[in-house]
Specification:
This protein has 260 residues and is α+β, with helices and mostly antiparallel strands. The model has no long low-confidence stretch (mean pLDDT 90). α1 crosses α4, α3 runs antiparallel to α4 and α6 packs parallel to α7. A hairpin with a 4-residue loop joins β1 and β2. The chain is 40% helix and 20% strand.
Length: 260
């Protein structure tokens, strides 16, 4: 099939605004009106690989997502499931970050339609519903703690077995192996901040030796009164997880080194 016929098939099966521009031998840029949410166009290349036509984003889609997300967050938890499902539905391959779709039986238009749908679905991980974003935040928090702290010094959903056998005042993550263990709280909303405040006050009443740290999903979204009470009892806070990953890692490394 000639390039002119391929372009015609693209327009018939997808939309009339599609254009193809040559960028070398057996390589063509495919221009479409489809955009990411921020206004950038989808990046699509039509090329011959191993004597077969294929569509490729040449790694652009994942690169675009990492403007706002950590690359590791795309490889785990809710986001990874959304991406895997989108690629599976449209038979798109992930080749070390390059998304590609081989074209079979000269079905160029149908392949382009599927490829565009897959790229849009993958990009949707930046705009999950609020409930799913919250679940991702908790997954991301746990993953960061597992990266920064040796596994033998971590206890998730910890409660004091002596004073609190019913786990009324649980801690999201306890870093142990120190004279003063670090109690770390993941804080996506007002209710979680209130619970953390109550728990820290109760630990003080029991005269437990500990340090405390809070990691917010977005501190700006927390009620001022709720935040003020929490700030009175929490030793260290990070206003968001996404913007403070390196700072959190450094802080945890310092605590592990000095608090023995």
């Amino acid at each position: 099939m000639t390039i002119a016929n391929i372009e015609r098939d693209f327009r018939e099966k997808v939309c009339a605004q599609i254009q193809i521009s040559s960028e070398g031998v057996d390589r063509y840029r495919v221009f479409t009106p489809f955009l990411f949410e921020d206004g950038d166009h989808l990046a699509i290349v039509l090329k011959i690989e191993q004597q077969r036509w294929a569509l490729s984003d040449e790694g652009h889609t994942y690169m675009h997502l990492t403007y706002d997300l950590d690359e590791k967050d795309l490889q785990r938890g809710t986001r990874q499931k959304v991406i895997s499902n989108a690629l599976s539905v449209f038979s798109v391959q992930d080749r070390e970050g390059e998304l590609r779709l081989p074209i079979h039986d000269e079905q160029f238009g149908n392949a382009l339609y599927s490829f565009i749908q897959a790229l849009i679905k993958v990009s949707d991980v930046s705009f999950l519903s609020r409930e799913r974003v919250r679940s991702t935040f908790l997954e991301d928090f746990r993953a960061l703690m597992e990266e920064a702290v040796p596994p033998n010094r971590l206890a998730f959903d910890w409660n004091d077995p002596v004073h609190d056998p019913q786990a009324m005042y649980s801690v999201d993550c306890r870093v142990n192996g120190m004279s003063r263990p670090l109690h770390v709280y993941a804080l996506p909303n007002d209710d979680r901040v209130r619970d953390a405040t109550i728990g820290l006050l109760q630990f003080e009443k029991w005269n437990l030796a500990f340090r405390s740290m809070g990691v917010f999903e977005e501190q700006e979204e927390i009620s001022r009164k709720v935040l003020a009470r929490f700030s009175d009892v929490c030793e260290k806070q990070f206003s968001s997880l996404a913007a403070n990953r390196d700072r959190i890692r450094r802080y945890l490394a310092d605590v592990l080194e000095t608090e023995r």
